[in-house]
Please model this.
Amino acid sequence: MSVVVGYVATAEGDAALTAAVEEVRRRGSRLVVVLSERSSRFGSETGALEEQVEEVRRRLDEADVPYDVRQTVRGRDVADDIISAAESTGGELIVMGLRRRSPVGKLILGSNAQRILLDAPCPVLAVKPVRT
Model:
């Protein structure tokens, strides 16, 4: 059994990772982090994804939870990668971060978030970053 989180190096991704770590501790399961090349905040620099992976690993080592980090291939769909990870690891929960939206924007959920909510093989926990 696992908790799957789609991680993007943003405030939303950080909120999702934090919530996923809490869920793993509560459930006594393993964390699977799905990290996509296109989600890097480091841009297109050489080694950018590797820096992001190392930062996630450092955070999870400090949190002292069992985990796997999966890097996806450019050109693949993020929602497909997250759903596939949940299916292949016996996912009991998917955690994803959501952006804050304007009142009009709330009528339309992001396409990846919507696909995950509709196609997930398990419950989905959507979190937002803490307002500062």
